[in-house]
Design a protein that fits this description.
Maltoporin, Chain A; 6-stranded mixed beta sheet; 41 strands; about 5% helix
Length: about 750
């Protein structure tokens, strides 16, 4: 039996035993269920597709998970993978059961109604979510809804909708955390200890109808290398060039021989997040709330060359002979990986909500996310001179941002119907300009090298009815209409000369949703759901310029929305302290927006990679989730989940080699498990996370996964011990990647890391 099959069988049997094991303690009542770290919610029982599939209690996540950043709380959520390369990482997209890490636009992520999943792009870099808007100590819970089964949410909910809710005080409170993490990273010539420290705190109070909270978070993080400088080995040996030592022979992900000549992406980040939240409860059962979160980051990324010259000096460029082969190491090989990034971003949200207990309830929401300052400086001169001076470029995204407006209502006055409806608008602005610099470190901006800009906007209306058909049977029927447009797009370049004004495009879509639930008994519920969703092209997908040698070409920005048709059949069993859920799911996407290789000019033999509409993709799979409280012995809590998926490219008229291949970034198997034992003031937790390897290319032409830019499988164990000193103080010690698995998800990921936290609250 293969390793994958053994793991599948082990997790399946464990999940079954957790679900079927009889309770030994008293039944967990409704009041205790939110205390689970992972809670499969009541979606099936009430047939409401807007109800969450998974709820993560922040209080329990702090007990069981080494939480330095807010996204750490999602580490054990079923089917999800957060690509967090180090503590403080701002490029940390979420992969779901049907989409990989490069499909960030298929997720919606909110913090108190503020949209923090970057709607300007669909990638795992600049379009990653802004989890830093919510500091971990301010989070109350995280709700996760899988699939586009709610009419309330836009087509970007194809993968998942993640709603982070922060807490408000009901009395005076003062709290603070001090956290430290240490990692010893060993790979190639690198053997170094890197660390992170974080200080956070807050104060809040409630006076009558008015409540407020002010918090601050400061993080200083040094990371392991995030990349490597590599050279493709020539076909024949040669004696030409200066003989250098220190390089390592290896294979790249396509199996071609390479040499690894140094570390890149050695980041040192200093981040500050300051958050203010105000709320006022009116006598008429309305609440007005305002949130503001100011994020600032200063990030220096460095490099380290392994190459040593005959005299022992470090070499970064030049005509070289490495292991008997001749290479011309370009100045850009290392210098383009040295960067300084400064960012200041402001997120704001305003809401007016009515009491949801009456027959009629309203909700008005507005949010805005603004890039006040976003600059990255990069040298173009050769190292080591460029470490202190020299020419370079500065890339600015100042003025980029988005806003959302929502007006929602619900009517509960009918006996058998609950009618919900709403209006929505979102608008995105992308502005990017790159200038030449005579001094890349401190020089003023020079001539414009290239620029891109554009806007998108969506207006939507939705309605949804939850209908009690029969005792124990409910149906949810909904529809969402969206009117989308892209406009004000342009691309300019100094060399080669280019000035293009892009055409205005638009689309109107209608997305039906349906769900039917049958409560068969006190313990079993079966739910079937179907939903259609349209994910509109993002502004950067439409207006991204492609550089090809001495010419620059802009792809036709007439991308079509991708259409997803999603299905789920789920059965859930609850008995006393246990819960077991089995889900079968399928997702079919036509005109899928993916980056793939094709000619830029019709009939040309030269291929380049850019975003295109792929005719059809399909993912089919099964998900199992099990929770058991007081399992086998009092105080022992067990949780496990397993997701098996078969994601394929079914039709691709542009790239025939991709047809029938696995979708990039969608592993065949993902699983996690966690055991927690509570003994008086102590909490002991051991967890494990597993994923099969996946592919990074459309035609699966990357068979080597355990290498830089490969997507390897991994098995990672985590441990945590928490001790409650008294009602105000607790201390936690933990280890991430206890077994020190050295794996790649394109980037090398953290190795064994020790974490310590001291928490105070009163």
């Amino acid at each position: 039996m293969s390793t994958t099959a053994r793991l599948y069988a082990t997790v399946s049997v464990s999940a079954f035993l957790f679900a079927m094991h009889p309770a030994r303690a008293q039944t967990i009542g409704a009041g205790l269920q939110p205390e689970y770290v992972i809670v499969t919610a009541d979606r099936a029982r009430i047939a409401d597709p807007t109800a969450v599939d998974v709820q993560i209690s922040a209080a329990k996540a702090y007990e069981q998970i080494n939480t330095v950043n807010t996204e750490d709380m999602l580490k054990y959520a079923p089917s999800l993978i957060v690509r967090k390369r180090h503590y403080g990482d701002t490029q940390d997209p979420v992969a779901t059961r049907t989409s990989g890490l490069g499909a960030s636009a298929r997720n919606l992520i909110f913090v108190d109604g503020i949209l923090v999943s970057s709607p300007i792009g669909n990638n795992n870099s600049a379009a990653s979510p802004h989890f830093g808007v919510a500091a971990p100590q301010d989070v109350s819970r995280i709700d996760v809804l899988y699939g586009p089964f709610s009419a309330r949410y836009a087509g970007n909910s194809i993968g998942a909708t993640i709603a982070i809710t922060t807490r408000m005080p009901d009395r005076f409170e003062l709290y603070g955390d001090a956290t430290g993490a240490v990692e010893n990273f060993r790979q190639y010539s690198t053997d170094q200890t890197v660390g992170t420290w974080q200080l956070s705190g807050g104060v809040g109070d409630r006076t009558g109808a008015f409540s407020w909270r002010l918090s601050a978070n400061h993080l200083d993080s040094s990371a392991q290398p995030l990349g490597y400088a590599t050279l493709t080995r020539p076909a024949a040996t040669s004696a030409a060039g200066t003989v250098l030592s220190g390089a390592f022979n290896n294979l790249n992900r396509t199996g071609a021989p390479i040499v690894v000549i140094g570390d890149t992406g050695i980041e040192h980040q200093v981040q500050d997040t300051d958050t203010l939240r105000l709320a006022y409860d009116f006598d008429n059962h309305w609440q007005l709330a305002y949130s503001a979160s100011l994020f600032h980051q200063d990030n220096d990324a460095g490099v380290r060359s392994y190459l040593q010259g005959p005299a022992g000096s470090t070499v970064y460029a030049g005509n070289s002979n490495i292991n008997g082969y001749n290479y011309n190491v370009a100045a850009s090989t290392f210098s383009n990986q040295v960067t300084n990034t400064q960012q200041t971003q402001l997120a704001q949200g305003l809401s007016l909500t009515s009491d949801k207990d009456g027959d009629f309830a309203w909700e008005l929401l507005a949010s805005d996310y603004a890039y006040l300052n976003d600059k990255q400086r990069v040298p173009t001169a050769a190292l080591p001179g460029a470490f202190t001076a020299g020419a370079g470029t500065i890339n600015r995204m100042n003025g980029t941002g988005w806003y959302t407006l929502d007006a929602n209502g619900v009517w509960k006055g009918w006996v058998t119907h609950e009618l919900a409806f709403g209006l929505h608008r979102d608008a995105e602005t992308f502005a990017q300009q790159r200038n030449n610099l005579t001094d890349w470190i401190a020089g003023g901006t020079g001539t414009v090298a290239n620029a891109a800009k554009g806007r998108t906007a969506t207006n939507a209306v939705w309605v949804q009815d939850i209908w009690s058909l029969l005792p124990g049977v409910k149906a949810a029927l909904g529809v969402r209409y969206e009117d989308w447009r892209a406009y004000a797009g342009s691309n300019t370049s100094a060399s080669p000369a280019l000035s293009v004004t892009q055409p205005r495009i638009s689309a109107s879509t209608l997305s039906p949703k349906a769900s039917l639930a049958w409560t068969m008994s006190d313990t079993w519920t079966v739910t079937g759901s179907w939903g259609v969703a349209y994910r509109m092209p993002t502004v950067t997908e439409l207006y991204q310029a492609i550089t090809t040698g001495t010419s620059l070409t802009v792809p036709n920005p007439n991308l079509r929305p991708e259409r997803a048709s999603s299905y789920e059949l789920a059965a859930e069993r609850r008995s006393g302290n246990s819960r077991f859920r089995l889900s079968l799911f399928e997702e079919d996407i036509t005109s899928a927006l993916l980056s793939q290789t094709a000619p830029l000019v019709a009939g040309s033999p030269t291929l380049f990679s850019f975003v295109q509409n792929v005719d059809r993709t399909q993912v089919r799979g099964i998900e199992m989730v099990a929770d058991q409280y007081d399992a086998f012995i009092p105080g022992l809590e067990l949780m496990a989940s397993l997701t098996a998926a078969d994601g394929r490219i079914r039709q691709d008229s542009t790239f025939a080699a991709a047809v029938g291949k696995f979708l990039p970034g969608v592993p065949k198997l993902k699983a996690n498990a966690m055991a927690t034992y509570r003994l008086e003031d102590w909490v002991f937790t051991l967890g494990a996370r597993y994923s099969d390897r996946s592919f990074g290319t459309m035609d699966n032409s990357d068979p080597i996964s355990q290498t830089y830019q490969g997507f390897a499988g991994y098995f990672v164990a985590d441990a945590r011990v928490r001790y409650n000193v008294n009602e105000n103080w607790n201390i936690s010690l933990g280890v991430d990647n206890l077994n020190n698995d050295k794996y790649f998800l394109f980037h090398p990921f953290p190795q064994r890391t020790f974490v310590m936290e001291v928490h105070f609250a009163r």
